[in-house]
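Course exercise 7: structure representation. Students receive a sequence record and must write out the corresponding structure in token form. The form below is the worked example handed out in class, using DUF3800 domain-containing protein (352 residues). Read each field label carefully; the graders check that inputs and outputs are placed in the correct fields and that the protein name is recorded exactly as given.

STUDENT ID: A-19
EXERCISE PROTEIN: DUF3800 domain-containing protein
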Amino acid sequence: MNGPPAGVPASPGRGLELFCDESGYEGENLVGGITDVFAHAAVAVPAADAADCIRELRHRIRSPATVYKANHLQREKHRGTMVWFLGPDGPLPGRARVHLTEKAFFAVARLVDLLVSGTDPADAPAMLRGVSAHGPAGALYREGPLVYGRERWQAFLAAFNELMWVNTRRGAETSADGFFRLAEALHREGAPGAAGRVLRLVRRARRRAEELRAALLADPRTVPALDSLLPALAAAVGYWGRDGTAVTVVHDRQTALTEERVARLYEVCRPPRARLHALRFVDAETDPRVQLADFLAGIARKRASEALAGLADPELDELLRPYVDPDSAWGDARSRALLAPGPGRRAGLTSA
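STUDENT ANSWER:
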């Protein structure tokens, strides 16, 4: 394919412009936070089409709100409007994509990456590889709660989250002791299968964990070990620029995208992997294209969270499926079957 897909705007000299927003982001707080899913949406819709969509939404919803958000479309009385927005007559088909992160699975995947596989948290290519429900991370995610009990497994993941979550406000009070005491206690139960094998390797990784934590504490510019925003952004640039097209990202203002993290994103998204031309920030209410990304991210996050909880919505799943990135960081098999883009697609959301 040469250039952007049909109907996707390209800016002279800059390639494709991608408008992004997110829903459910809590930084590195992956376990026990407010949300269990993080969604990052990217849309490539012409400005005129986005403005027409906002006008249509105002006509249909008739809320006095100055700026519409995803929750306006998600109200039951506006169900038909949400169906229109996602459907074939709406503004998004072929011009939007949403990357989903199941936070508990992402925590397990990072645990395996950092403590078992020895991945550098700042490893640039790793951001574009993503995480998959296949392999040791998927096995540990599936077996852990069954083998060790859901409550103890949650405590184990929370201890890992606490250990690797480093910032200046929280300080350096957490040590490796609590996490490795739990790892040792679980290991003593002699669990069979993949979970037991991975736990044996984890409990031997104390030195590695302490080195990682010391590095994170010593250099605040280090990319956070548990951050899900940069991988999602890298996936968006990698997809939309997969044919070599230069991508300019226009993102809703996000304090987590510091100068150091943006610099790392440029390092990740460079040829031949991808090509990030520029990244700039706007307020969502000033750009209707970012508002469309907000709508898609919010709708997808809420529906994905409901699917995790076992709630069915076949109509909405059918509408969302074409937008979902098959490389999303997802481990739960039941909800994956509802959200997966389709048979034969590769990576994270395909059948394990």
